[in-house]
Amino acid sequence: MDNSRPFEQNIIAMVWDFDKTLISGYMQDPLFKRYAIDAKQFWKEVNALPAYYAKFGIQINRDTSYLNHILTYVKAGKLKGLSNKILRECGKELGFYPGLPEFFPKVKKLIEENPVYQNAGIRLEHYVVSTGFAETIRGSIIAPYLDGIFGCEFIEAPAQPGYLDNSFDPQEGEISQVAIALDNTSKTRYLFEINKGSNKFPDTIDVNSQIDKNNRRIPFENMIYIADGPSDVPAFSILNQHGGATYAIYPAKDRIAMRQVDSLRRDHRIQMYGEADYREDSMTWMWLSEQVSHIADNLVQKQREIIRQSASRPPEHLNS
């Protein structure tokens, strides 16, 4: 390794959206079922919020307004006692698409059980970047297979006025504030965190730090982004612009959803798409595993070229 470079850049990252990419619906469904909330009514209200507030001259973020509406439901008593612990518990009730969570360790084995890749020190990491609840993802069956989870977060006990001068011991309780809100554009921030390594070295690297591309932990060309549709265009664009791989998921036998992702392909927003089936030998398994192998082969070739260039030719016998 070049001592002047902080990272060997031999890591591959698969970055996943969550809702309708890994599960067929929305992760809030178990929560609404638990509290007997009409999910259709909740989302209908959320979709009408921008127009409602506009009448009062107030603009809101369409992608994250549902978080405040969740808090409104808590305050109104419809989600009474909702805590981060309950959000985690709801994650256990999520059902995943066929082939999950087995896909995650299986695709890692492609790297771990290949002696050529192992000799080159290549690794594969999985990340989820979602506009949903990070705690619910942490409580799901896929959490043990993930190297990082980025999602929306809530605070239960906010720091009170004067907390700097007095001891503050936040207790578990009802959620009352939004801590982190991801929308479809800000999701790209977390691609840069993974790219630069600030997610692994937060005390050393800031996501806004100027870092030469050769000094970043995971180059974009080593990334694969998997999501379900138009809302992920900003993230798809980042990967497409910087040599990464992009793949869209649609539910099996859903012709309308297939047409939607096909339009993304025709517009060069994504490189390929397939059904939400992660079992071995499915189209999705084959394409994604091929991309992983393709990136790994490129990394091996790059490493060999660097070694070849750095090694001098041995002395040779001179002919008289």
TrEMBL record:
SUPFAM superfamilies on file: HAD-like
Top-level division of the source organism's lineage: Bacteria
InterPro entries reported for this sequence: HAD-like_sf, HAD_sf
Protein name per Swiss-Prot or TrEMBL: Haloacid dehalogenase-like hydrolase
